Amino acid sequence: MLLRPCHFSILSKRTASLFARPLSTSPRCFKMSDAPNHNSKHSRGDEPHQYQASSRTDREEDQWKFRAPYKIHDKGENFPVKWKGKCHCGTIQYELSRDKPLASKYCHCTTCQRMHGAPFQWAAIFHKEDINFTRGHHDLGWYDPTAKSTTHHLPCKVQCAYCRTPIMDEGRNMILLFPTLIEGINTKEGREAFAAQCHMFYPQRVVDIKDGLPKFSRLADESDLCDEETGEVMEGTNPKEKEKKEEKKKE
Ligand SMILES: [Zn+2]
Ligand SMILES: [Zn+2]
User: Which portions of the sequence form the region Disordered (predicted)?
Assistant: First the structure.
């Protein structure tokens, strides 16, 4: 997925099927080496495209402004605000219309470690339509960790172009938000709503987390699990493989 960023893999089968791309064996969260490079197409503007500090909407490269997750909702539009989030400097502010994420997980892959400057990433999955940017629409910066490019092609990492707070990972159909940006995340309600269901890429960890949650060796729900105590990968525990075997038995 990323077209299938590892982060989206915790989703249900139905949701996961939205991602047409096959799994890759790369440990990166974003697998888009086959994505077209739009650099040449975007180079004709007179402004840098690593961020969109412009209110222009007439060029081809401005079209993203009209699409989710960047589409600005009208005041009168039905967008029930359940949560609000912002970057450190406050330039970027957004609202969420969903009570809780579709899924939440911790990713221990080295790309997440490096890009977040943290032992692991905490990511909450939402539909692109669930977010409304109320500020900073034109102050977002993009980065594709696979191509190491800062133009906007999916999937990509999205940051505040001023203070560099990571805002989200944008996939083809979903976005991954970082709950620590959300107001009230440190309340009981916040902790419960955004509680992670599992860990992934656990063998790449820099810290042991013995919290009783499932620990996948690679993508969530489709790789072998790791032992809670030793962290060792337990061969043959991939839930997807097990499911396949059981289906075969029935036939
Ligand atoms: Zn900021
Ligand atoms: Zn990751």
Answer: 30-62, 224-251
